[in-house]
Each structure stands twice: as structure tokens, then as C-alpha cells.
Amino acid sequence: MPERTTDRRITTYKDFWDFYVREHSKPSTRALHFIGTTLGIALLVYFVAIGRWYFFPAFLVVGYAFAWVAHFVVEKNRPATFKYPFWSFISDFKMIAYILTGRMGREVARVLRNNSHGEHVRSDHLE
To answer: 99 vs 10, 86, 103, 119, CA distance in Å?
Structure first.
């Protein structure tokens, strides 16, 4: 998998968020994340509601399965979860909130416009 950033360790959440947005620049990647997270949350609520809390891992499997397919197949990159698990988990929900409020397309455009890593920005990354 091609690595899109330098090997430097990201140390602030602001820098991580910009990295995360670049790694989710294609609309289909964001859509798969949205589907996986939504289904995962629905499963979690369902299992808690029926008293089968021990099925909790299913919520993670479903959510991450969609996300990882998006990264390996669509974006052709490595999920940020491997290197930054906590910030990735939090950022997934932030991205979902941005999608639901119609802000994610503008956020992707902002990050790609301010790209400081010298990556080639393709127009198919914008909504």
C-alpha cells in the first residue's frame, strides 16, 4: 500500500484530523464508513436492547469491515486505525457528524487545498 504521508509521527489531533480527511478523500470511502458505522451502532443498540450484550464485538467487526474495504479497495491506502486507533475511532464519528450536517465535502476541499504533503490532488476526491 502506498503511504501518503511522511514517516513522522502525528502529535496533535488537528494534524491527525487533516491526515484523516486526506485518507477519506473519496466520496465512496466516506459512504462505506458511514454504512459500516451506522450498521455497527444499530447492531450495538439491538444487542443491548435484547440483553445480548456479549455480542458487542459484532458491532466492531461490522464497522471496521466496511471501513477496511474502503481503504484497501477504494482509497488504496492503509487504515489509520493501525497507527492511531483512538484518534481514528473518534474521527470516524466526527466524519459521520460532518456528513450528516453537510460539511464533509467542504472539509475535504479545505484539507486538499491546504495540502502540505505535496500529494497530487485529483478532482474525483471532491463531492
So the answer is: 24, 20, 6, 24
Are 93 and 37 contacting, i.e. CB atoms less than 8 angstroms apart?
A: yes
- The pTM assigned to this predicted structure is 0.78
- Cα separation of 26 and 12, whole Å? 24
Nearest 10 degrees: Cα torsion 110, 65, 80, 2: -90
User: Which residue type does 55 have?
Assistant: F
- pLDDT tens digit sequence for 20-76: 999 999 999 999 999 999 999 999 999 999 999 888 888 889 988 999 999 999 988
